[in-house]
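ok posting inputs for the zinc ion job
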Amino acid sequence: MSRRAEPLLKQDDQGETFEGDVEEIVEEALDSGEDDERAIVCARCEHEVTSEDHKTSIQGGFEHSCANPAGVLYRIGCFEEAPGCGAIGEESSEFTWFEGYAWQVVICRRCREHLGWRYRSSNHVFFGLILPKLDHWEE
Ligand SMILES: [Zn+2]
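and the output
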């Protein structure tokens, strides 16, 4: 694709050429924003937590509905990595939702909202993040 030398904005009486140039600009804008589009952010503060690329399937699926011992139901999604989260508190293997994995609470690195849990087995780590607490993830 050759880049045109003409100015991007033309006068209205040259309508056809003008429209062609606008399309080109929109395409370039989408290309350059591709990385950001795949970012998944904290719903509370919009800090980037993970991305669509880190989605993974654990024990049969990406999404799981799990209840804790108090009966609170969580809808969580599984991610291989979540660099925007930090783990806090003690690791525990009590009441784990994933056989063979111990869990640790993870919070948003910016606003400290509880976003989910980090799960660790003897040879694997993943993050189970609470989907209603995230924005920009795709079904
Ligand atoms: Zn946050």
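notes: The first helix runs from residue 15 to 32. The beta strands are 39-42, 48-51, 63-67, 73-79, 85-92, 102-108, 114-120, 125-130, 134-135.
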